[in-house]
Amino acid sequence: MDITIYHNPACGTSRNTLAMIRAAGFEPRIVEYLKTPPTRDELRTMIEAAGLTVRGALREKEALFRELGLDAADVNDDALLDAMLAHPVLINRPFVVAPGGTRLCRPAELVKEIVPGT
């Protein structure tokens, strides 16, 4: 099964999601997105496939979110995507792409919707 996790090893939720995938018998492709961010098209596709808005995929807890003024209601999706690509720490995690769909696995248990046996 082809599974990709956009992973941050420093994040407990991301580590738990990865552990659940492995416990189900799968070894996913791991993309440490802070080192290797997705392209704009990949990011937009993941967000749409997960049924989220661009704003819904932002990590609002990061101080940079407010520092860049991204909390303003009039910031459009293109500007939000630009910020996420320039500062990958703003991308919420972990995104998992599997044959069963794409999810932002917060909480980690959401991976159960797309990876059998998790």
UniProtKB/TrEMBL annotation:
- In terms of superkingdom, the source organism counts as Bacteria
Q: Which GO terms describe its molecular function?
A: arsenate reductase (glutaredoxin) activity
Report the enzyme's class at the first EC level. oxidoreductase
What the entry lists under InterPro entries is as follows:
Arsenate_reductase, Arsenate_reductase-like, Thioredoxin-like_sf
Please list every transmembrane segment annotated in the UniProt record, as residue ranges: none
UniProt keywords (A-Z) are: Arsenical resistance, Oxidoreductase
Q: Does the keyword Membrane apply?
A: no
UniProt entry tagged with the keyword Oxidoreductase: yes
Please give the catalytic activity noted in the UniProt record.
[glutaredoxin]-dithiol + arsenate + glutathione + H(+) = glutathionyl-S-S-[glutaredoxin] + arsenite + H2O
Name the Gene Ontology biological process terms: response to arsenic-containing substance
Q: Which CDD domains match?
A: ArsC_ArsC
Which EC number(s) does the record attach to this protein? 1.20.4.1
Q: Which family does it belong to?
A: Belongs to the ArsC family.
Q: Which NCBIfam families match?
A: arsC (TIGR00014)
Provide the protein name: Arsenate reductase
Question: What lineage, starting at the top, does this entry show?
Answer: Bacteria, Pseudomonadati, Pseudomonadota, Betaproteobacteria, Burkholderiales
